[in-house]
Amino acid sequence: MTDAFRIAEHYHGVLPPTDRPLLVVMLTGWIDASNAAAAAMDALIDKTAATTIVEFDADTYIDYRARRPIMELRLGVNTRLNWVTPKLLLGRDRNNRDILLLTGAEPDANWQRFANDVTTLARSLGVRRMLGLGAYPVATPHTRHVKMSCTCPSPSIVATLPYIKSSLDAPAGVESVLEHALTAVDIDAIGLWAQVPHYVSSMPYPASTLALLNAVAEVGNVDIDVSELRDIVDVQRDRLDRLVNENSEHAAMLRQLEQAFDAAQAADGTLANELPDGDQLAAELEQFLRQHRSDS
């Protein structure tokens, strides 16, 4: 098809048959607070037993000075080099529905060529919809449910989604390029973004990962087992509550965020930009939580 990607050897140069798969995209290197989207992709790979079907050419898409291969050195023997490159995997959900997972490093160059390659593969594999995953920090309390926002080139699709619709100018990632490329060939393409309390955005926040997986299930019409993650969310919520309540100032600042969140919800059902920035809460709580990292 192209020298910029190759089909995995065990498929002998022929893409496997698929039945209108969902394509989920999460390429590391763009905005991903708490690594929530990367964790969601890892969960999808695990729960769908996904295996690689396509590997993209590292020389075409990766800047090795920024993403050097890892050398495995064993007693002086350079045993192998692990190259960082985007990959396309194929798995199946609990209802045996096909799911394609585009993961790995975001390309450092040739974004439009990459988008063309992905579009070619998507059409060959009969992709019905693409979902991109991301997460961003915001002044929101961990004691409330995770809010989601969406991006999509199609106004009619955006109108059907029960998520925040923001208006802003921001640097784009390759996922945004894929949204436009796939939409141009009549494949629905949607970006799903989970909010993360910015005072915990430097550490794992499984509640946002769970929100992303639930959105994938809902918008992508797939069935993934997330029961283990729900248990982890409950455990972290309890630990965060206890850590915050140990300090009266932290608890007071958290209540301010809760009040702002609830007021925004009551006003229009979305988390508005008028929420307090929570800088003091972020600075103090983040330091506080780092001191208790073993418990959080």
Protein topology:
Layout: E1 5-7, E2 22-28, H1 36-47, E3 51-56, H2 58-61, E4 70-74, E5 77-82, E6 87-92, E7 98-105, H3 111-125, E8 129-138, E9 148-151, H4 155-160, H5 174-183, E10 188-197, H6 206-220, H7 227-245, H8 248-268, H9 279-291
Parallel strand pairs: 2-7, 2-8, 8-10
Antiparallel strand pairs: 1-3, 3-6, 4-5, 6-7, 9-10
Helix pairs in contact: 1-6, 3-5, 6-7
Report helical residue fraction.
25-40%
User: What is the CATH H-level superfamily?
Assistant: PAC-like subunit
- The CATH class is Alpha Beta
User: Which fold name is given in CATH as the topology?
Assistant: Rossmann fold
Low-confidence stretches: 271-276
- Percentage of residues in DSSP E strands: 15-25%
Structural class: alpha/beta
Principal-axis shape equals globular
Strand order of the largest sheet: 1-3-6-7-2-8-10-9
Quick overview:
With 296 residues, this protein is α/β, with parallel strands linked by helices.
Describe this structure in words.
A hairpin with a 5-residue loop joins strand 6 (87-92) and strand 7. The chain is an alpha/beta fold. It is globular. The strands form two sheets. The chain has an eight-stranded mixed β-sheet with strand order 1-3-6-7-2-8-10-9, with helices on both faces. The model is unreliable at 271-276 (pLDDT under 50). The chain contains nine helices and ten strands. The chain has a single domain (5-226), classed as 3-Layer(aba) Sandwich (Rossmann fold).
